Amino acid sequence: MTESLGRITPTGTILHVVVHGRVQGVGFRWFVRTEARRLGLAGWVRNLPDGTVELRASGIAQFLSGLEQAIQRGPEGAAVTRITQVEAPAPDSRADTPYPFIILR
Description:
alpha+beta; 2 helices; Alpha-Beta Plaits
């Protein structure tokens, strides 16, 4: 098992990462949204112009760990090559990690 990328903040546990590889055009955002909602997590996922996918999720640490594992495997057709943590400030409000988990366009 890999080391968790999530971090504990004053407002809870946050996972904010960028996923590299073949992650656009393969249903990756929908896959992440489905998994995050199944786990009861708040947050969002979006495509970036460079071909990567960024996501920010908040919730219970063990459920964030489950999302991390799902992201590493991805949906059929995806090929995750790297996941990098984004150093970002803790959210100031629930608007930073909406519930239920959404896809940003």
